[in-house]
Fold this protein.
Amino acid sequence: MRNMWVPEGIRRAIERFREDIQAALENDPAARSVWEVILCYPGLHALWLHRVAHFLWKKRRYLLARLVSHLNRALTGVEIHPGARIGRRVFIDHGMGIVIGETAEVGDDVILYQGVVLGGTSRQKTKRHPTVCNGVVIGAGAILLGPITVGEHARIGAGSVVVRSVPAYATVVGVPAHVARLGNGARPETALEHNRITDPLANALEEIAQRYVELEERVARLERRLLGEGVCAEEGPLPALLKEPDGKEEV
Ligand SMILES: CC(C)(COP(=O)(O)OP(=O)(O)OC[C@H]1O[C@@H](n2cnc3c(N)ncnc32)[C@H](O)[C@@H]1OP(=O)(O)O)[C@@H](O)C(=O)NCCC(=O)NCCS
């Protein structure tokens, strides 16, 4: 076959086919043979069918492309919109439950586990799905929303919900996702990098503390005013004013 003349398109397709199999063998320690990978890896079948759908999409055969994508979903449990752009040597492990939206872009050597969603947050017909750069690993069940960018070789923890862009080489985890590790393997200096951390509980506590300070200031101002108007003779008069005629304090 090496000496045979093979059309360029076919040659490229065979090369991609080989790369895909190699990626599965390298990334899944459970994979034992080429035939096992070819026959039993729905993630691979999903990629191959997506290439057909994407080809048709680019040729403006939109309905046919959607039909192939629909068939892909039925056979593999992986829903990739035919417009989505997927790079080389991408490895989809297990497959089931993955959803990749129309304007999503996935780079080379990316690993996606089951249940990953690259979803949109807008109804506008613009770029509305994530861009995932080369070498990223996205854990099982992670949900990435909106036109965010996940930098090269970043890692997304299983079950995370990512709504902001992720720096290259960082590890993000949680809901909403926050940086657990930076590119150099260090943990982020949270005191200095508030812009990288979103912790709803901490935010709520901060709001309560701020409100408390505001209320204290208002009470102090009120006390000073009452003192100035001669309503009270000494500082801190509010407790006395709040006393009912029978001597009980109002609550
Ligand atoms: C995120 C991940 C890639 C690990 O990356 P890492 O850079 O090696 O990070 P570590 O394991 O050192 O964890 C860093 C911190 O994040 C936490 N963490 C890791 N994964 C997490 C997750 N999915 N959700 C919440 N927290 C997580 C760790 O407990 C650790 O916290 P600590 O710093 O308070 O101790 C890995 O945990 C993960 O989720 N991989 C996906 C694997 C997968 O989906 N497999 C499916 C096979 S079917």
